[in-house]
Amino acid sequence: MRRAFLLLRRRLITSIPVLLIVVIGTFFLLEAAPGDAVDAYLLSIGGGDPALVAGLRESYGLDRSAWARLAAYLMALLRLDLGWSVLFGRPILDVVMERLPATLWLMGSAVALSFSLGSALGVVSGARPGSAADRLLSVGSLTLYAVPSFWLGLVLSVIFGVQLRWLPTAGLESIASGKQGFERALDIARHLVLPVAALGFIYMALFLRMMRAGMAEAWRQDFALAARARGLARRRIVLRHVARNALLPLVTMLGLQAASMLGGSVVIESVFAIPGFGRLAQEAVAGRDAALLIGIILVSAVLVIAVNLVVDVVYAVLDPRVGASEPAT
Prior knowledge:
The chain is mostly helical. The protein has 13 helices and 2 strands; from the N terminus they run ααααββααααααααα. It is globular and about 85 Å long.
């Protein structure tokens, strides 16, 4: 556990400049984009006189230079203040915290589905490389991985939502249902089935193929050959030796795929009309709310870093060699 703690401490320290680069880079990219919140507002009301434009820019703080606004934003971040959303007329932190749970539920459920089911099917496929089950699962996973997540989501909606009417096709829960407790949790779970399946199945195919490839490579290693020479049962060799060593690259890939899975959840949220980060980012772009968009990207970066920190700790627990060279102080 000490190795894991030292590794976690170093990763936390190195994540600070990463977040700083994300904030500064996003700020200047949005500065280079044409238009701002005042332009979006004037477009919605059909224009305005120069006095109104000047007053709005002053109230929004857009009359200052880019460097002054960046310095003010970084100082506010030190107080954990993400700023004020001109689109919603509320603090950005409140808006983000209101939408964050939906994205976390979707992303967390998809990660659990893809990793557990993908690794389990990968064990089945890699237990006997070249068998009929291995070939069937390999072809199926390759086909599934080639399918775009939004197209899979639309197909699942048409089949299970429109034709069979088994599951809801939009939203996170029933509107004004009045459900509480377990009934509300069950209603949310029903709404998440299709979006979680659409997002999780794509990454499940990736984890399946990685697990299968890792096990096929592990079968040729000396420890697997020694275990077979000792006469151990094949099931014991598969589960306790081959699968355990093949699982380590999957843990690493889980952290690397966190960013792409978060991006995939944004697309799925748009397809299934889930009020999460996806729709919030769309609204921020449409309203030219740069501060809100920076806040969304910053929180997304924090989520990706947090996932990778957890992965690093799990990897250090599974592999004693990881973190062994970390300094004691």
